[in-house]
Write a structure and sequence with these properties.
With 22 residues, the protein is mainly alpha-helical. It is built from one helix and no strands. Helix content is 91%, strand content 0%. It is rod-shaped. This is Syntaxin 3 isoform C.
């Protein structure tokens, strides 16, 4: 489930960025 892994990593990265901005 490589696609799932990519989505998971992207979600984590997006979450970190959002949290950092906030």
């Amino acid at each position: 489930n490589f696609h799932g892994i990519l989505s998971y990593l992207l979600r984590l990265s997006s979450h970190e960025t959002k949290d950092d901005l906030e």
